[in-house]
Amino acid sequence: MDMQNQPYNNTFYQPGPYRRSERMEITAMTLGIISLISCTCLYISIPCGALAIIFASLSRGGGMTYGARAQLGLILGIIGLSATIILYGLSFAVALLQYGSIEGILKASADMADMDYNEMMQQLMP
């Protein structure tokens, strides 16, 4: 049987516009929500926000526009990352204003832990 003369009749392949991935859109939206809700937890918010942005970008499937859920995931991921960075930056700035320097912050934390400051510094820097 000569395959070159046969008409192309494959029902699984549908040429046309790029298909969006609904699962990636839902994943992006879910991770964006988690990133926004957990913006006070650094170890959850940053990976979830970054993954929300990545999945939203990948969900386009080669198309030029985002789906509604992918847009929502992208926006929530960006807001979650921004809120986390702003929150931790402001808390560090307040600590610097309160204690004067990073050394002052370390001395205050040594006092709170009932440790000698010099002993704590030796443990941090061998």
Description:
It is a single chain. With 126 residues, this protein is mainly alpha-helical. 67% of the residues lie in helices and 0% in strands. Helix 3 crosses helix 4 (102-112). The mean pLDDT is 84.
Number of strands: 0
Q: What is the overall number of helices?
A: 5
| Unreliable residue runs | none
Structural class: mainly alpha
Largest sheet, strands/sense/barrel: none
Span of the ends, CA to CA: 76 Å
**Taking Cα atoms only, what radius of gyration do you get, to the nearest Å?**
25 Å
**Topology as H/E string?**
HHHHH
What shape does the CA trace take? elongated
Could you estimate the helical fraction of the residues in percent?
55-70%
The fraction of residues assigned to DSSP E strands is under 5%
- Quick check: average pLDDT? 84
Write the layout of secondary structure elements.
Layout: H1 22-37, H2 42-58, H3 68-99, H4 102-112, H5 117-124
Helix pairs in contact: 1-2, 1-3, 2-3, 3-4
Keywords:
about 130 residues, mainly alpha
Give the structure's gist in a few sentences.
The protein has 126 residues and is mainly α. It has helices at residues 22-37, 42-58, 68-99, 102-112, 117-124.
